[in-house]
Amino acid sequence: MTDKLTVSVLGTGIMGAAMARNLARAGHSVRAWNRSRAKAEPLAADGAHVSDTPAEAVRGADVVLTMLYDGAAALEVIRQASPGLRPGAAWVQSTTAGLDAVGELAGFADEHGLVFFDAPVLGTRQPAEAGQLLVLAAGPSQSRDAVLPVFDAVGSRTVWTGEDGAAGSATRLKLVANSWVIAATNATGEVLALAKALGVDPQSFFDAIAGGPLDMGYLRAKAGLILDDRLTPAAFAVGTAVKDARLIVEAGRQHGIRLDVAAAGAERLARAAAQGHADEDMAAAYFASFDEETGTDT
Predict the structure, then answer these.
(1) Sign of CA dihedral 120, 123, 128, 130
(2) Is residue 141 one of the residues assigned to a domain?
(3) Which of 62, 90, 263, 286 could bridge to 5 as Cys pair (CB 3.0-4.6 Å)?
(4) Which of 282, 268, 288, 274 is nearest to 238 (CA)?
């Protein structure tokens, strides 16, 4: 079979738009849909066809890729797409959906004769735009050739976690990875907030840990966004991070463990969102350390 495919991308936010653009640049025929059409329109300049409905976008597609807010949104949209779905098409489900939702989504795929791939990605705006995402994927080995050109277009590497997408092994790994990302981001904000409260120059902290085991590129990158007031456009928005943090806490609860740091992180991100930072980079959780009205330490 040819490695040039017809790919439907449902959801063209920060990640979906970048993935659609890279698919088009790789020579695939791309059909894009977004709930707000205005967010999808710029993709026309990259050769994508912008569709009015999910059903129109998926009609005749070899691969359907969903990159939506959460599992409920993915299920709603794929149901809307059902009149146009072709039995035997591959469904690359890249939304961070949570453990419960993966089973529901896989069940829909089975009912409609789709080959289901649980395939969340690791990475934010910049690696997505560069086609350098890490794809975490689970799905049947005999059908992987159908989706490898898609993964190659959007990512630099694919890590296969299992044969059964319905088991959610890729989503499980994504939640584990995101638990670390969210904890590190919240810790970065608290370090800078404490430094401000105590009158410590943040640079003295970075100098103290420079080159040692406590130093970390991610810490410096997120701190830079805060210190230089570069929180927009978001690489990964506060509002989306709240959702992911809650999925992580719920996954832990379902498996009999308490994730105190994740739970506190979810509350911290939610507080920043309530203060008006929902669309800013998740590093804006920094502001949750301060009173939302006065900007002073709480």
Answers:
(1) negative
(2) yes
(3) 62
(4) 282
Distance CA 148, CA 230 (A): 35
Does the pLDDT value for residue 3 go beyond 90?
no
In the chain, the N- to C-terminal Cα span, in Å, equals: 61
Task: Estimate the crossing angle of helix 169-198 against helix 260-272, to 10 degrees.
Answer: 70
Q: Answer yes or no: is 259 within a domain.
A: yes
CB atoms < 10 A from the CB of 152, how many?
17
Which residues on adjacent β-strands are paired with residue 116? Answer: 91
Going from the C-alpha of 115 to that of each of 12, 73, 160, the distances in angstroms are 22, 20, 16
To the nearest 10 degrees (0 to 180), the angle between helices 238-254 and 169-198 is 120
Query: How are beta strands 29-33 and 133-138 bridged, if at all?
Result: unpaired
Q: Which domain holds residue 212?
A: 172-289
pTM: 0.93
Q: Is 132 helix (H, G, I), strand (E, B) or coil?
A: coil
Structural tokens at position 182 = 């969210």
User: Residue 91 in contact with residue 125, Cβ under 8 Å?
Assistant: no
The answer to the question of residue 294 being in a domain is no
pLDDT digit string, tens, across residues 77-132: 999 999 999 999 999 999 999 999 999 999 999 999 999 999 999 999 999 999 99
Last residue of a domain, one of 102, 134, 167: 167
Half-sphere exposure for 24 (CA within 13 Å, toward CB) = 21
Query: Does 243 share its domain with 147?
Result: no
